[in-house]
Design brief:
about 45% helix; 6 domains; D-Maltodextrin-Binding Protein, domain 2; iron; about 900 residues; thiamine biosynthesis; membrane; five-stranded mixed beta sheet; about 20% strand; 27 strands; phosphoprotein; alpha+beta; pyridoxal phosphate
Length: about 900
């Protein structure tokens, strides 16, 4: 027997010895994390297709729900030894943090199923729109970690959301359907089905779209199970992955069999439609058709998941991802070392046996020893090569995984296509997010790409691709028409990919969603257009000044008034007015000091003529509230000032005419007395020849009194007419102003047969007003009441004047029993409005009254009298106090 045959025989014996107990199927339990559904299709397929049997395993797949409705946590079952394998996700890291030695074997779902579901009518288009919205919260749920991380990644404070708890007896998706909340945190394989059943029109926000990419369902066991039977563990992994490949390739068949053979305890119970509805979601999470990624585990992603959990308080300690993630290569190395020891021992045993059997044992032992060393060296080199290859493959997988994560999580669409045929070779998930269409459809038929472009932009994209085919990088902007009717703006960049000969054999590119930027630019342009339209059409001039009082902008009206603006743009505003320094008490300068609005009247030269301007300076602040610019409005009020002066002169004239009868009465009375007493004195002189001194002094005293009364009336009129422009506010007695006005109006009232009633507050009624103007106001109100009576034929004409103490104000009320106001009461305060016939008053009295009252910070109103059903005018004035 040759050495080679002896070694082969020995290896067969060893293999039979090592695996002699594999003939009997081993019983193991797989504990699911939820009820039976397509979410776990690969494990059912591995059992039904006999893959577990081929691996020598008898597998029992247990639902998380018992027949009595009780719920079993997979982690608890695996930790207690009731199950050898379990399905979980982030809870694996939490269990590890609690000291349970769980080990991740394979990550079936390469992405988490946690998603945010929002009502389409909520106005939420992205994570940043969740601020201030109402979201159902699940306190303590591990899915919340992904929500919090997503919000932080988008710069949204999680505390800015309004959280609502899940109500007892009410599902969270029912709360969204009723409109009670704007968003819910749900599960991709269940929540969409329930919402569609309820007829809810919803949108989805996925954490992975914001760079938060957790693993989903992962297969795990414990370190004790691996140490006890590593071969069984590897066999279970291989059979499970094989089952998953079958389930994804025959999804409808497996979904229908699950519905028939595996009844559910937890709703929904109409399982066929439900399981078929999970197929698309499961394929996306795996992801399918990239079955080579099935079960792939990247330790770095698990470490990132652990960091997120620790940041939000779900775990406290650190994690050794080398112990967390199962590495078959390390186990293979231990098996290789065991085989090497057995082989070496076998060769030594054969050599020793040969010493006793053959005479030439010594020679044979040398031959065997040399051959053994050669085999050991060969085996060592082979092992090094295997390890090196495994490390290279691991590095390649990690590199590919990092690239995949980067491409799939950035907010862009990355693509690769053939240069000649145009066939799309790869698309990133960004296509679905931007285009709103399936990547699988684009990979199957590349021509559908142009169907989603705006017709006016198709030629632009073709030209950009032609630039890439010509070995030139190119970019453009185009519009994408999504199936939901929304239009997106996309920035499109194309890069040529060269082969070894330097020829373009592929094109690669990225498409970035710039919709928000374009909308912002459009809004900015529209805002600028509106601003320019408004400023250019203003009847006045407008300036924009910086903090140094230099002109930043000016509208066309200002440039017409001051042509120097065109030549001295950027100069100081005061230099445009011919000044060398800032104007005294300049409102533009003051607003930068106190940040308030200031108004000033200025007389400026415009084209050689002096014009009066009202200048209003307003502060413009930055985000921190600091005044950085000033807006200045110039209004030409030259004609307005002239009209005001004319109005005042006309009002005085009308007032004088109004009071003429009263003046005549007040003057005639003492004049008649003066005439009577003078005549009596003359008669005494004629009859008696002389007048006694006492009698003479008495008569002269009466004459002097009548003369003083006439002088008083004249002085009173002079004050009313000449001092009417004095608007100094002082503390005056409202009751006294009413009484003084009556001295001039009593004759007019008697002439028109009007009964006047006074209902004045006892004592002084002190108010803040101008005394002379206040008398003019009372006179005008009484004149207005008399004029109203003239339009109405009535015998019992009445006017009631009242002063009323009302909290911090004093009320002056004038009402009559006339016909009231025919038109809207407020019209009576308009200049030149009058109810008198042609040739009567100019209608300036009540307009002037309102001007006076406003200047005292008072208020005047007109309406109907509740007592007489006639007209009523009330004036409310601030109370005054004597210092």
């Amino acid at each position: 027997m040759t050495i080679r045959r002896m070694v082969c025989t020995l290896m067969v014996c060893i293999s039979l010895f090592m695996f002699s107990d594999s003939a009997d199927a081993k019983k193991v339990v797989l504990q699911l994390c939820w009820d039976h559904q397509f979410q776990f299709a690969g494990y059912y397929a591995a059992k039904w297709q006999g893959y577990f049997d081929e691996a020598g395993l008898e597998v029992e797949i247990q639902s998380a729900y018992g027949k009595d409705g009780s719920f079993s946590r997979a982690i608890d079952a695996v930790a207690a030894g009731r199950a050898q394998f379990g399905v979980g996700a982030s809870d694996i890291l939490v269990a590890r943090d609690k000291g349970i030695p769980v080990v991740v074997l394979a990550s079936i779902f390469q992405h988490s199923a946690a998603e945010i579901y929002v009502r389409k009518d909520s106005g939420i288009g992205g994570a940043s729109d969740l601020t201030g919205k109402k979201l159902v919260r699940r306190p303590g749920d591990l899915f919340e970690v992904e929500l919090q991380a997503m919000l932080r990644a988008e710069g949204v404070d999680p505390n800015s959301l309004e959280y609502a708890p899940i109500k007892r007896g009410v599902r969270h998706y029912q709360q969204l359907a009723s409109g009670e909340v704007d968003a819910i945190l749900g599960y991709r394989l269940t929540t969409p089905f329930m919402l569609r059943k309820l007829g809810v029109d919803f949108s989805v926000l996925r954490p992975m779209s914001y760079g938060v990419d957790f693993y989903g369902d992962s297969l795990y066991t414990t370190k004790d199970v691996i140490d006890a039977d590593p071969a069984m563990v590897q066999a279970f992994i291989r059979a499970s992955l094989k089952g998953w490949e079958y389930a994804l390739d025959h999804a409808e068949e497996v979904a229908e069999r699950i519905s028939k053979e595996l009844p559910r305890v937890h709703a929904p119970l109409e399982t066929t439609e439900f399981n078929l509805g999970q197929v698309e979601g499961v394929k996306h999470l795996c992801p399918y058709p990239h079955v080579e990624l099935l079960g792939h585990v990247n330790p770095e992603r698990w470490r990132q998941m652990h960091e997120h959990l620790r940041e939000y308080g779900q775990v406290k300690g650190s994690v050794d991802v080398g112990e967390l993630v199962y590495d078959p290569a390390a186990w293979d190395e231990r098996i290789s070392q065991r085989l090497t020891r057995l082989l070496t021992g076998g060769f030594v045993a054969v050599g020793i046996a040969a010493l006793f059997v053959f005479a030439w044992a010594v020679s044979l032992r040398k031959i065997v020893a040399n051959r053994t060393r050669q085999l050991v060296d060969s085996n060592s080199r082979l092992k090094d090569q295997v390890l090196e290859r495994q490390r290279a493959e691991g590095s390649l997988r990690e590199s590919e995984e990092r690239f995949r994560q980067m491409v799939e999580n950035i907010h862009v669409f990355f693509w690769v296509r053939e240069a000649d045929s145009g066939k799309i070779l790869y698309t990133s998930p960004g296509y679905e997010r931007i285009w709103g269409q399936s990547s699988e459809a684009l990979l199957a038929d590349s021509s559908t790409f142009y169907d989603s472009l705006h017709p006016d932009d198709c030629s632009t994209i073709r030209d950009t691709l032609q630039e890439g085919l010509a070995n030139r990088a190119a970019d453009c902007e185009c519009r994408v028409l999504r199936p939901d009717g929304e239009m997106r703006w996309v920035r499109w960049r194309v890069f040529p990919v060269l082969n070894a000969k330097g020829e373009v054999y592929r094109l690669a590119g990225v498409a970035v969603d710039i919709t928000k930027r374009r909308h912002a630019e459009d809004l900015l342009r529209e805002s600028e257009r509106r601003y320019r339209t408004i400023t250019e059409n203003l009847p006045g001039g407008m300036l924009l000044l910086d903090g140094d009082m230099k002109v930043v902008a000016a509208n066309s009206t200002f440039k017409q008034w001051f042509p120097e603006t065109e030549h001295d743009f950027g100069g100081h505003c005061y230099s445009l007015m011919g000044q060398q320094e800032r104007c005294p008490l300049c409102p533009c300068s003051t607003l930068f000091v106190d940040g308030e609005v200031h108004t000033q009247f200025k007389e400026l030269s415009v084209h050689g003529a002096m014009r009066m301007f009202r200048v209003i300076a307003c502060p413009i602040r930055d985000n921190e509230g600091k005044v950085v610019q000033g807006g200045v409005m110039y209004s030409d009020v030259t004609e307005e000032v002239k009209l005001t002066e004319q109005l005042q002169r006309a009002t005085k004239t009308e007032l004088l005419a109004t009071m003429s009868s009263g003046i005549a009465h007040e003057v005639n009375q003492p004049l008649n007395a003066l005439k009577l007493w003078t005549t009596g004195l003359m008669m005494l002189v004629e009859n008696e020849g002389r007048v006694e001194m006492p009698k003479l002094l008495e008569q002269l005293g009466k004459i002097q009194g009548a003369a003083d009364r006439i002088a008083s009336v004249i002085d009173h009129m002079r004050m009313l007419i000449r001092k009417g422009d004095n608007v100094e506010v002082e503390v005056v007695d409202l009751n006294m102003a009413v009484k003084r006005a009556l001295t001039l109006m009593s004759a007019k009232l008697a002439y028109h047969g009007i009964k006047l009633s006074l209902e004045l507050e006892p004592g002084p009624a002190l108010v803040r007003a101008n005394g002379i103007q206040l008398e003019q106001v009372v006179i005008n109100l009484m004149v207005n009441a008399v004029d109203i009576h003239d339009t109405y034929d009535r015998r019992d004409k009445q006017i009631v004047i009242s002063t009323i103490n009302n909290s911090s104000h004093m009320i002056l009320s004038v009402e009559d029993n006339g016909p009231g106001f025919a038109d809207e009461p407020d019209k009576i305060f308009e200049p030149f409005y009058t109810t008198k016939s042609h040739g009567g008053s100019m209608g300036l009295g009540l307009a002037l009254v309102q001007t006076f009252v406003n200047s005292w910070n008072g208020k005047i109103t007109a309406g109907a009298s509740e007592q007489f059903k006639g007209a009523k005018i009330e004036i409310s004035l601030l109370k005054g106090t004597v210092s």
